[in-house]
Amino acid sequence: MVRTHPWEISDAFWAEVEPLIPTKEECRDKNGEYKRKSGGGRKRKEDDRSCFAAMVYVLRTGTIGNALPREKFGGLGSSALHYRFQLWERGGLFERIWEAGLNKFDELEGIDWEWQSADGCPIKAPLTTESAGANSTDRGKNGVENQRLRGGSRCPALHRRLRGESA
Q1: How crowded is the C-beta side of 51, counted as CA atoms within 13 Å?
Q2: Distance of CA 14 to the CA centre of its chain
Q3: How far, in whole angstroms, is CA 96 from its chain's centroid?
Q4: How far apart are CA 135 and CA 16, in angstroms?
Q5: SS3 of 149, please?
Q6: What is the 3-state secondary structure (H, E, C) of 6-38?
Q7: What is the Cα–Cα distance from 14 to 21, expressed in whole angstroms?
Q8: Among residues 30, 61, 27, which one has the least CA distance to residue 44?
């Protein structure tokens, strides 16, 4: 089977992710007070694979959860998806996936665990003030823009009609 969309979950990938999904007990808040014992209440109607596929869809397409196409994921709504995301995050699923991915890459390519580096720079880049101006909020403005936003006419060429005036 050829994958046509980057958000589709292949059977092989799901076979690696499914055992990493935390149990209900792992997802429960250790400090939380619950009125019911674990397993009480309504049973979930959405399956784990459709929830995971929806999370991958949101991450890969950049869409917001409310714009999730329900027909693709068995009627899964954004609230249920967010709730499941929070449960799985609390249960450590995403750290497990990250760790499994690192181990798989280490097997295939090898990771030099002795030497690690992080790239960063805590100072301003030396040429930014020349191209951007002294302050990043007034980049390319000569002062007139700020006066217009504070109450002056935004477009002086057009006359603004007041309420009650005829055109």
Answers
A1: 19
A2: 21
A3: 18
A4: 49
A5: helix
A6: CCCCCHHHHHHHHHHCCCHHHHCCCCCCCCCCC
A7: 11
A8: 27
CA distance 87 to 94: 11
Q: Across the chain, where does the E strand assignment appear?
A: none
> Structure tokens of 3?
């994958």
Cα–Cα distance between 87 and 106 in angstroms, integer? Answer: 29
pLDDT by 10s per residue, the chain, length 167: 565 677 788 899 999 999 999 887 777 776 766 666 666 666 667 788 999 999 998 888 888 878 888 888 888 888 889 989 999 998 899 999 999 999 999 899 888 877 777 777 666 655 445 544 555 555 555 555 544 455 555 555 555 556 666 65
